[in-house]
Amino acid sequence: MTIQQILKHYWNHDAFRPLQEEIIQSVLLGRDTLALLPTGGGKSVCFQVPALAKEGICLVISPLIALMKDQVENLKAKGIDAVSIVSGMSKREVDIALDNCIYGPVKFLYLSPERLLSELVRERIKYMNVNLIAVDEAHCISQWGYDFRPPYLHIADLRELHPDVPVLALTATATVEVRDDIQQKLLFKQSNVFKQSFERKNISYVVQNEENKLRKLLDIAKGVKGSGIVYVRSRKETAEIAKFYTENGFKADFYHAGLTMDQRSMKQESWKANRTRIIVATNAFGMGIDKPDVRFVIHKDLPESLEAYYQEAGRGGRDEQKAYAVLLYNYADRIKNEKKFLTNFPSVDEIKLIYHNLGNYFQLAYGTGEGVSFDLDLSDFCTRFKLDPTKTLNALKFLEKDEYLSFNESVFLPSRFRFEVMNEQLYNFQIQNPSWDPFIKTILRSYGGSFENYVRMREHDLARRSNLSVQQVIEGLKQLQEMNILNYLSQTDQPQVTYIRPRQHNNDLIINKRYIEERKATARKKMEAVFAYAEHKKCRSQMLLAYFDEINADKCGVCDICLEEKRQRNLAETADNITDEIVLLLSTGSLTIGALITSLKTGAEKDRIETIRLLLDAGKIKTDGERYYL
What we know:
Low-confidence stretches: none
Number of helices: 25
Number of domains: 5
Mean pLDDT: 90
Distance between the termini: 83 Å
Shape: elongated
Structural class: alpha/beta
Number of strands: 22
Oligomer: single chain
CATH architecture of the largest domain: 3-Layer(aba) Sandwich
CATH topology of the largest domain: Rossmann fold
Strand content: 15-25%
Strand order of the largest sheet: 3-4-2-5-6-1-7
């Protein structure tokens, strides 16, 4: 099929969006390509279509596990074979998935960048017929970007395994510095960038200097019709502000990474279907969620960077209709952020202490643990060892950069299982153990393909079908596992730490201090850019575009600054017209204030009174206390 036929067949679209076709043609010609498309610009089509047009498998590297899973499900729903390999999967599970990529019909293999650190994964990729390497959220490879992920630096290793396969890097936000860095780190044979303007003409960017932020949250919800997102910094605040909205008559709900996958899906679907009008969320919300009719996005607190702000604000108005991106800001926010910045970055000694505490927390002996993943309850860990959570998160990222461990902030893996015996052996087991027969039959009727692959399951569904409690189902699966009949992996929804090297003694830890200082300088620069955006009286859209190196953009005409300038111009024009009228009226004789105001045709009453006052102050008209004259 041609790329147009593929688009029609699988997506039912008649035409590509702007730049998609050019990017796809570039990839099909075998060129390394960097594509910058705004949030909601259809980045996934840019690698999915060319991969389907060629023989072989496409490797997709992405840090967003939830998004990976969504894309795999969507591809499968279209009849396209796709698999994902993420942290937390067992070695056997990974082994089977990789085998299917080499010998089976799989067209897309989604990998978290941490997986590229595994020798097993790299060795097996060598034997795959790879047609394209797609790197999503490519800004993560640049240490000048806002969301640097050290494992991304290993993507270039894939080029040694498949030197003739093109790389397609995709991102929604990147400065010139970051664009150059992405191409360099991914070993582009030559520079090749496709970039859409970052301008969003239908979004009105607004900064409101506000002490009473709660009142303003209500004002916006009252004043702007349609659904909205409110971003806050803490999980606690999501629930508090959603409750505040509900108490004031708005249908609102909250969302953060600490909720179970089922809770998140339910809240997300309710909001997407407009049963919930406002979702109050941390920045865990929004990636990969394509709701076109979001009318307002409010940031109650300052964002981490203008890149993050642009992405989050850009979730409004994807239907090209008018939308508002509102940042609530006051000077106390600046003080708070500067103070937080100073405590964000741990010292080398603090990093070593956190590493040591982590080993104790997992009860890991020195010299062991290589390749092992652990669920990390960050709150419990920080409470037990009296640590600052933000500083601990940053320490984990520095340990990741120096390749002692890898850290995924949230990994949800549903429960899954696979039979470890063949069909005949299972049948014999059922005959010899009749008490197990009904339970096993229910499993077999409920889930197909479980002799070849790990199959997702829901204990709750199995309990309903077998007339057992959820706990009885879990116990039954565990017992069958002990008898080596099946392998059962229960769901996880925790951040995960994977040890890349065995646990080291603290004296053997080498932490790159210079790199920490560079990260600190980059973070400060980004924080100052956010302050400038919030405080300067320039067109907001121009400021955002200038940050992304679109220097000579026109004023947007719809942000708060442009609207205020327009209002001031209108006021000046109105005052000039009122002045001309006053001079004309008084040139024929004096008038009382009442007669003068009612005789004027231009402007509102307050504008007329203000103009008369200004003309008196300037000595252009006079009064004897009762009447006004020239």
